[in-house]
């Protein structure tokens, strides 16, 4: 992450979104909500780094 690889954020969004149904299936609703928040944070990180890349280009 220190090299600011933009695709890392998309990987985290994908992984977080995959875990949400798993935790719902196991009836761990608070953990599912937590991973939903993680997905939102990762998406915001992706958008922020994307803006940074556009400013340098």
Tags for this entry?
mainly alpha, 2 helices, 57 residues
Describe this protein's structure:
The protein is mainly alpha-helical and 57 residues long. It has one domain (8-52). It is 84% helix and 0% strand. Helix 1 packs antiparallel against helix 2.
Give a brief rundown of this model.
This protein is mainly alpha-helical.
Mean pLDDT level: 91
Briefly note the structural class of the backbone: mainly alpha
**Which term fits the overall shape?**
elongated
Continuous helix count: 2
List the helices and strands and how they pair.
Layout: H1 6-25, H2 29-56
